[in-house]
Amino acid sequence: MFKWRNSQNNDVEDDSVDYEEKVKELKVALGPLSGRDKTFCNDGCLRRYLVARSWNVDNAKKMLEDTLKWRASYKPEDIRWHEVTHEGETGKISRADFHDREGRTVLIMRPGKQNTTSPEGNIRHLVYMLENAILNLPEGQHQMCWLIDFTDFSMTKNSSVGTTREIINIFQNHYPERLGFQFLYNPPRIFQAFWNVVKYFLDPKTFEKVKFVYPNNKESLELMTIYFDIENLPKEFGGNATLEYDHDEFSKLMRDDDAKTSKLWGSDA
């Protein structure tokens, strides 16, 4: 029997359910696929959508079909670094050069370094970084972690509630079971009011993955050591490493990854 390890590191098991058979059922329900849809809908993808819908094949099918429509319209796999590089100049979102202890790709987000006011530009940049994080997942790993540094955070730089809600909808509906944990490191008190609004947009599974971490809190420090090697973790998150964003170096890395993306999806956008 197939066992699926979920984002909380517990096996989702029910002796009455054959999980591998569920994957086969969903594959049949979707019908023949071709092109990018076929590339996207591998067994790992089907399992994630089934987990997100509690292994209900009909619900998973609807969710996946909605994603395929979104991808056909938005074309996230065709976004290239040169299109969003201006959004990334300050390093407000970057892929870390280390993984967590379970091998998950780590995205570092620094909302205090927000540098543009275009909601669509910010969303497109984030979607690009999500696709890039997935591209760089180690074999056998399907999730990523988000580390959010609130240094220099201000509400004037923060995304609007509407933009944040759209981001949440895209991530929850089209990237299910991709998030391992999200660590909000030392958020200021002024963030609490914003959080009290947007948390209601999160489904229960996603909500459980959000962890508030404070540098002077013993439990917070222990939590970080559980998930990260302190020697690799930047000082901004309580570790010993130095985090310096070099836009030119990061751009070179992204351009190299763009070539891998084109090869994967059969495109040269």
TrEMBL record:
UniProt cross-references to Pfam families, sorted A to Z: CRAL_TRIO, CRAL_TRIO_N
Domain spans labelled CRAL-TRIO: 81-245
GO MF: phosphatidylinositol transfer activity
Gene3D superfamilies reported for this sequence: CRAL-TRIO lipid binding domain (3.40.525.10)
InterPro entries, sorted: CRAL-TRIO_dom (IPR001251), CRAL-TRIO_dom_sf (IPR036865), CRAL/TRIO_N_dom (IPR011074), CRAL/TRIO_N_dom_sf (IPR036273), PI_Transfer_CRAL-TRIO (IPR052578)
Membrane-crossing residue ranges in chain numbering: none
Matching SMART domains: CRAL_TRIO_N (SM01100), SEC14 (SM00516)
Protein name: CRAL-TRIO domain-containing protein
